[in-house]
Design brief:
The protein is mainly beta and 126 residues long. The chain contains no helices and 8 strands. It has strands spanning 18-23, 26-31, 55-61, 67-71, 75-80, 83-89, 96-101, 117-123. The protein has a 4-stranded antiparallel sheet, with no helix packed on it. Strands 1-2 form a two-stranded antiparallel sheet. Strand 6 (83-89) and strand 7 form a beta hairpin. It starts with 17 loop residues before the first strand and ends with a strand. InterPro entries: Glyco_hydro_beta-prop_sf.
Length: 126
Amino acid sequence: MHQPTRAQGWIHQMTCVRELEWQAGTLYQRPLRELVALRGEAQGWCGQTLPLAPMELAFDIAPNSTLGLDFAGALQLTVNRDGLRLSRRGLQTAEMHHRYWRGERDACGSLSTAPAWRFSSTMARG
C-alpha cells in the first residue's frame, strides 16, 4: 500500500495523539480533547462536474442477497447482509485495498423494521 507519510512517522488518523480510558474492563481510546482547539475553518472544493443529467440509484436488496457495483475495475462497492465493502486499487500497485462498514441498517437509510437493505445514492451536477 502506498503511504507517502509513513517515512515521516505518520500514517492515517490513528497516529493522532489519543487518550486512553479504562471502563468496566474495556480499554477505550479517543483523540485528545485538546486537538479540537487546533481545528481551523472547514475547507471545501467545488470543481467542474461531468455534463451528466441528474440521476438517482436506489436498490432494494433481499436479506440474503448481494449487490455489487464495479466502476471500471478501479472501485467496487459490495452490499450484503453483513454490511458494505468498498474496494479500490492501490496508488502504486494493482493490489486491491478494502474498507468495511458493519452496523445497523438505519445508518444506510433504511428503516429498522425493513426486511431488506435500502441503498440509495443521488448523483447530480454540482
